[in-house]
Protein: MFS transporter
Amino acid sequence: MGRLAAASSVGTTLEWYDFTIYNLMAALVFNAVFFPSFDPLTGTILAFSTYAVGYISRPLGGFVFGHLGDKLGRRFVLAATLMMMGVATGLIGFLPGYASWGIWSPVLLVTLRFLQGAAIGGEWAGAVLLSMEHGSQHQRGRNASFAQVGPSCGTLLGTGFITLLTLFLSPEEFQSWGWRIPFLASVVLVAFGLWLRWGVEETPVFLELEAHHEKAQAPLKEVFTHHWRRLLMAGGSRIGSDVLYALVVVFTLTYVTTVLHLSRPVALTATMLGAACNAIAVPFFGALSDRLGRRPVYIAGALLGMVWAYVFFMLMDSAQPLQICIAVVVGLIIHAMMYGPQAAFVTEQFPTRVRYAGSSLAYTLAGIVGGGFAPLIIATLFKSYGSTLAISVYVTAALCLTLVAVFVARETAKAPLEN
Structure:
């Protein structure tokens, strides 16, 4: 299980490292590098629009790789998506800015961002199933949550790397060439991830399906035809946690640097502390859902998230580094209450023969409604109303959708995996 946990989390760690450095650069420098003709806040909104492209493309990855995951196996898809993500991220590091290539520069940025999103769209379900379908059926919540640690570890790794760069490089050097270094460094992580994953065997439940010739011939069609209600519930469960994450992690950087006019290290330090706590809390709440059930833990996180959407800005507006750190850390612990049980909750909604396809579609389609446009909506709401109240109401509404989805879904913690 140790190697399975590492293999499950290393891919999501790498891919969220890639996603994190892109998100941070969108908040910090992309407005000047790729959209220099606009005022800073408008440029940031355009940069967050490219962030949204990474979510819009996820369903494509969910469709393609979800189909392949139920046809060719979990391990094959995990290697393919890892390579795809690494190549796209490395090429962003070589991409010339607007001053050199004009309009082609942001166009190519959007294209590479599209490939990043497609890779993550096919990655997540496979990473979860790798550990969940191998491990003990009584610990599915804990085992599935190993993949959920990846985003926090990737966020921590990416944020830490960028923090070091900002400490050793001047703002001019960072904006000129320093921002490229984290993208190029992902090549090393790709090689390690491929080595680790290729040493893990295919999951027993998929091998059993293959041996009995019971694999779905058209997994996507079967999901939409026979399991569309489960797809809606599984997808709806993700929306609130994605929006809360976008607020606490992505928008914090813009808010601290451009609204509160504090230094970048303050925002980055808060994000790193929050990510570290999130990484510890995710498997804890995943394991807790094995004992108490997925729904009670999930619902508690959603309710607390509604409260924190308002407390968060009260602490942020103090402009005190300690209170900013508390706002981010507590926000990400609340996020972990939903994110820990989420992997098992989503994948358990579908039978084995279409579990990869169903989980991928739920993950990616919900990502568009939730996380994909969340930073763009949050920044636009703030620019339009000049107040954080509208943002808090938006986060609360998203969490209400998640509450409804989790409430009407069936409890899966104590039930055996559906074959």
